[in-house]
Amino acid sequence: AAPLRYPYTMKKYTIFALLLAATVAANAQYQLPNAGFEQWDGGSTSEPTHWNSFATSDGSYSSLASSPHHYRRSGHRPGGTGSYYLTIYTKSILGIKANGNMTTGRIHAGSMSAESSDNYNYTQRSNSAHCQPFSGTPDSMYVWVSFYAASGSSQAQVSAILHGDNDFKAPNEENTASKYCGKASAHFTRTTSSASSMHWQQVAVPFTYNGTATPAYMLVNITTNKTPGAGDG
């Protein structure tokens, strides 16, 4: 299978911010809509078209989490031709740190405890704005990253889950082989020692095909920290 070329640009812009941007070079068979974050639904704190964050979350605590954890910036990575970056950042809600979170699915905010299994991203097949049909079997996704965090051990995360005809929940069902086909996941420690500088890396992240489902949807999730509530590194 041909690779899914999915080049993000990532940076932790302040202590709690993660900057994502991209231009897209891809086999059209495996291209996701607006992978380069060039189209937006409105102003600088609207959601990128075909992507979703806390503003359109659901769940018991969605209203508390609905304020933006992201914004749009002008620019592009070295060698790129895009016009915008997507910045996501950790934000404190009633004293609880909520990591920056962007997804092709929908965020479910079901608990005030960051570690609760009632908080997850999921594919919502009944809503075309919160699901991404995808039936290809790419070898890899390609990620451009420039990332700053206060701690050298802090890790941002980008993951892509190719799953079956179900409302897949991440991370809840990531080990349920009958519900997914393949997964690709990348964790990034900081690539620069200063929030005011950028150092770019491109990483090819292979898909591992160890599930049994027939591919039908792709759920892509981006977060400022792989650990819930640990966005300050």
Structural class: mainly beta
Low-confidence parts: 1-28
* Relative strand content: 25-35%
Terminal CA distance: 37 Å
Number of helices: 0
Spatial order of the strands in the main sheet? 1-2-4-3
Shape: globular
Largest sheet: 4 strands, antiparallel
Mean pLDDT level: 81
> Total number of β-strand segments?
15
Task: Tell me what you see in this structure.
- With 233 residues, the protein is an all-beta fold.
- The chain contains no helices and 15 strands.
- The strands form 5 sheets. A 4-stranded antiparallel sheet has the order 1-2-4-3, with no helix packed on it.
- A hairpin with a 2-residue loop joins strand 5 and strand 6 (96-98).
- Residues 1-28 have low confidence and may be disordered.
List the helices and strands and how they pair.
Blueprint: E1 9-11, E2 17-21, E3 70-74, E4 84-89, E5 91-93, E6 96-98, E7 101-103, E8 106-109, E9 119-122, E10 140-145, E11 156-163, E12 169-170, E13 180-188, E14 201-206, E15 217-223
Antiparallel strand pairs: 1-2, 2-4, 3-4, 5-6, 7-15, 8-9, 9-12, 10-14, 11-13, 11-15
